[in-house]
Amino acid sequence: FLEKKRNRAAKGNDFHTVKVGETVYSIAQQYGIKVKALLKKNNMWFGSRLEPGQVLNLRKRKGGRLLF
What we know:
Layout: E1 15-17, H1 24-31, H2 35-41, E2 55-57
Antiparallel strand pairs: 1-2
């Protein structure tokens, strides 16, 4: 992805369901968003493990406290 990374995915891409083998980095690349923004929207921290079937927010932040 060669364009500047955004803080949220494009309209229409509100959520992503994690598939086997995907990483936070690969998902961020797929949607052209910053890894840090993706982590923040999902109250995750660097090194967090993803589970297949887990649903990640790509545009809005989940409620709760930040963990990093």
